[in-house]
Write a structure and sequence with these properties.
This protein is an all-beta fold. Helix content is 0%, strand content 61%. It has no helices and eight strands. The strands form two sheets. The chain has a four-stranded antiparallel β-sheet with strand order 1-4-7-6, with no helix packed on it. The protein has a four-stranded antiparallel β-sheet with strand order 2-3-8-5, with no helix packed on it. Strand 2 and strand 3 form a beta hairpin. The radius of gyration is 12 Å and the shape is globular.
Length: 82
């Protein structure tokens, strides 16, 4: 069973962008980041210092800046740093 935590590892800076996190196990989780705006958005992602992005499945992430189309989503995998 995965760890349970109310603390988010990823926090988007843009006002119309929200995220959900889905814990896989103690050292990894998926984040689904949603743009609720009708505009393309660039949002800086604040990622907890103990974690890092291991894979981007959907969306464009460049140096913690996420680029999302209008009403689009990104899916990233995060892992705890060793």
């Amino acid at each position: 069973m995965g760890e349970k935590s109310n603390k988010h590892v990823v926090i988007p800076a843009a006002q119309m962008v929200c995220s959900t996190e889905h814990i896989i196990d103690n050292g990894s989780r998926y984040a689904v980041i949603i743009n609720y705006s009708k505009e393309h958005i660039k949002s800086n992602l604040k990622i907890d210092d103990a974690w890092e992005v291991s894979e981007v499945y959907r969306g464009k992430l460049d140096d913690n800046n996420l680029f999302l189309g209008a009403c689009d989503v990104a899916v990233i995998k995060l892992v705890k740093k060793k």
